[in-house]
Amino acid sequence: MHRVAVTGMGGISALGCDWPQIEARLRTGVNAVRYMPEWERFTDLNSRLAAPIEGFEPPAHWTRRQTRSMGRVSQLAVAAAERALRDADLLGDPLLRSGEAGVACGSSIGSIPDIKDFAIMLLEGASPGLNANSYVRMMPHTAAANISIFLGLRGRIIPTSSACTSGSQAIGYAYESIKHGAQTVMLAGGADELCPTQAMSFDILYAASRRNGEPHATPRPYDRDRDGLVVGEGAAVLVLENLDHARARGARIRAELVGFATNCDGSHVTRPEEQTMRTVQELALRDAALPAAAVGYVNGHGTGTEHGDIAESRATAGVLGPRVPFSTQKSYLGHTLGACGALEAWLSIAMMNAGWFAPTLNLDHVDPRCGELDYIVGEGRPLQVEYVMSNNFAFGGVNTSLVFRRAR
Question: In angstroms, rounded to a whole number, what is the distance separating the alpha carbons of residues 305 and 229?
């Protein structure tokens, strides 16, 4: 078995595109949620809140030939991958085209405007918006495919499309590819673009926040006064690398990925199952060969929905006990769906290395039905820890848990 290092990290988020930017925003205690006046035309949509990325454009050095197969979700993913490779000092390295490097990347869906164009064809019989790249931009593995093509990767390609665990499953499967010797380097992460259909998907389940007049007061993960989630968008990619290879080339080690597990509830498509949430964390600890007491911080899924918050927090408390520090970045970024597992893994590592962990915003009164944990609130908390855990739970009953160790 090979050890797996994180040698590069990159992302695009509503709070910024690098850790110094994001940390500064996290410390302000103000989230990126805003009212979306452009959604007012959707008369049946009650939730008009989101956390969009403002001002993102494809980098100037990208060519039209490169971008024509990319919808926004792929543009975000490829931009994050470039940033991660630059951080790892591997951008342009011949290793990328050797077959020893691959990609695992997920999104909850392809690019929505292209799906709309196909819908117009079905509804109206005409297809004015379709072209040779429409399907490529729409397909669920568009992010992974575009990363591999843009960078010339010839190793494994592992597309994950498992809703809110897409990014964390991708990281886990990439980790296993290196751990078992199938690859030397893997780009791993997730992405999703913002669309009102996402808000509507949760709104019709009464799971989307309707605090339209108070965008900075929502979402409220784990809070007794929560009223649902807020959708967002973004992308993050980690460069995972065989630790021996990384050391041999003198790479800077950001962290070591030491544990991963994924399982499924097998019971209900939208109602989370506390026991299997608990089991996935136990399996990740077993994979890492760690006792529960070793974990110094948990990055929770924290959607701000009643059933999710209660089941997740109770499961975490059941595994790790009441003293483990616990928070979530969805209170800042909203729910970025296929990107959230990758964004939260990136930020877990960044916070661990900075020795400061951001609080959960809007957590004024912990719901007494939630598990007993050390909820980080207020101004955040300085902590020196060796291990962090990042958990995600998705529709379809998909659960993931990742364990990272601080670089030594």
Answer: 6
